[in-house]
Amino acid sequence: MKFSISKILFSLLFISILGCKKNEKQTFTENNSVKNTIEYASGLSIYKYENYSIVKVINPWPNANKDFTYILKEKNAIIPDSLQKHTSIQVPLQSIVVTSTTIIPYLEMLGVENRLVGFPHTDYISSEKTRKLIDNGSIKNVGQNEKLNMEQLIEMNPELIVTFGIDNNNPMIDNLEKSGIKVLIQGDWMEQSPLGKAEWIKLYGALFGKEKKAKSIFDGIVKNYTKALELVANKKPETTVLYGSMYQQQWYVAKGNSWVAQFMKDAKSNYLWSDVEGTGSLGLSLEAILDKAKNANVWIAACHFQTLSEFENSNPHYSQFDAFKQKNVYTFESKLGAKGGTIYYELAPSRPDLVLKDYIKIFHSDLLPDYTFTFAQKLN
Hints:
By secondary structure, this protein is an alpha/beta fold. Helix content is 34%, strand content 18%. The chain has helices at 2-23, 104-110, 128-135, 150-156, 171-178, 194-198, 201-207, 211-231, 259-266, 286-293, 308-314, 322-325, 343-347, 352-363, and strands at residues 44-49, 52-57, 68-73, 87-90, 96-98, 116-119, 140-141, 143-144, 147-148, 161-163, 183-185, 240-243, 246-247, 250-254, 270-271, 281-284, 298-301, 329-331, 377-378. The chain has a five-stranded parallel beta sheet with strand order 7-6-5-10-11, with helices on one face. Strands 15-12-17-18-19 form a five-stranded mixed beta sheet. The chain has a four-stranded mixed beta sheet with strand order 1-2-3-4, covered by helices on one side. The longest helix has 22 residues, at 2-23. The protein is globular, with a radius of gyration of 26 Å.
């Protein structure tokens, strides 16, 4: 009898201990064996755990005072209590609104463009595939980036809105979150590495349950970019390059650590402002540009013009440059979509391998004699 009572007491104690353990909080312990799947992008990290992923977006705008963490939660996933404070997003997504044209190619590459239900100012989208969805009403125009149509978005109720901020004051983002809509801040536009910018496709792979496909696509882009680098490995950067055009009494050149400057460096050219520290652009006077770049061999102009005469008519001073006189003026911005959107702005960030080939064709045409420009166009 004593033995039976002892067994009963032991059983009750064991059940009680199990009950206590079930009520203990699930805490997150970082697993050092789980590696960040991002290799090139400086502003994105993705850690894949069982049934959920941790996404970190770092420095999404200049001088950002905070980073963002998101939990991508698969069906029946158990999320540790210590991660509950972060925005949780159920994946794979069935509907999404995005606010940057740079995301459109990612969706198309992954074959999920039909899950896009809204976009601000749809005329900016150039892709023919996505334009068909706009034309048949599958994708709604949801206002402007700075002023999204809140009532329309609440009625649409997308599973996620992916947007961006430009500084630490983002009332539109705050209003979206207050309305109960899930919001993810992305910072692909802050990336200065060509491959780092393209690697953001992995975020959309994680959001739509297409991680393997996203990795395969990105690995192909890396392979193509590396092959292009090998083409010019033994070339010397002899071609001197002028970049930019006049805009409101200022001439903006790309700084030496910028995305654009990296392409010109990788294509083995002598970009005349490669020594200017920083990212983004630097505003200079026409006189300063003439003093430094009057004799440049090639001019990469920031313009939509098709011909040299149109270009000269916009500013007669352009004819003073040797690159203009020698008809060596190129632009990446003249190819437009059906509604006037610039194809380069939309597609180039996701296909740096094609951008690099265009630059190599400009500076070392003998290396790619049969290659046709994807983005670049020489002004006639």
